[in-house]
Amino acid sequence: MRRLRGHHVQLGGQQISFAQFELLVELSDRGALPAGELAGAIGLTPATVTGMLDQLVACGYVCRTRSDSDRRVVACELTADGQRELAAHRETKQRRWEGALAGVSTADIRAATRVVGMLCGHCEDSLRSAAEPDAGTRP
């Protein structure tokens, strides 16, 4: 995912970063959210996300609304244009995946899914164990 963050996504007539695309997906999946919560969801700082959101607002994909109950809280949400462009992008990607896997059997897809899941689990276990202090250094 970190490698993808350096890439760009063509969305409608605009080119946005992959990280900005992640923000749009998060807003689509979860609804209106404050910038800080969005930042936590995709693992970036609130300051970075604020700048990215400024660009998405300028593209017309996101709008900001101040909460009626707490004027300090500003939520970000997809605009109708943002929803439409994201849906079109997802549909295009879905067709590409279906085309790429057209000749692959369901059994092979299930087997590949299991293997990839096991690999992901192994990578997560490795990251967790690397982050834990060495057992020999504990008091």
Layout of helices and strands, plus pairs?
Elements: E1 8-11, E2 14-17, H1 18-30, E3 33-34, H2 35-42, H3 46-59, E4 62-66, E5 74-78, H4 80-100, H5 106-131
Antiparallel strand pairs: 1-2, 3-5, 4-5
Helix pairs in contact: 1-2, 2-3
Determine the number of helices (DSSP H or I, runs of at least 4 residues). 5
User: What is the count of structural domains?
Assistant: 1
Q: What's the CATH architecture name?
A: Orthogonal Bundle
Q: Provide the CATH top-level class.
A: Mainly Alpha
Average pLDDT for all residues: 85
Judged by helices, strands and strand pairing, the structural class is alpha+beta
User: CATH-wise, what's the superfamily?
Assistant: Winged helix-like DNA-binding domain superfamily/Winged helix DNA-binding domain
SS strand fraction: 5-15%
Cα-to-Cα separation, first versus last residue = 37 Å
The rough form would be described as flat
According to CATH, what is the topology?
A: Arc Repressor Mutant, subunit A
Give helix and strand order, one letter per element, not per position: EEHEHHEEHH
Radius of gyration: 19 Å
Largest sheet: 3 strands, antiparallel
Number of strands: 5
Helix content: 55-70%
Order of strands across the main sheet? 3-5-4
Low-confidence stretches: none
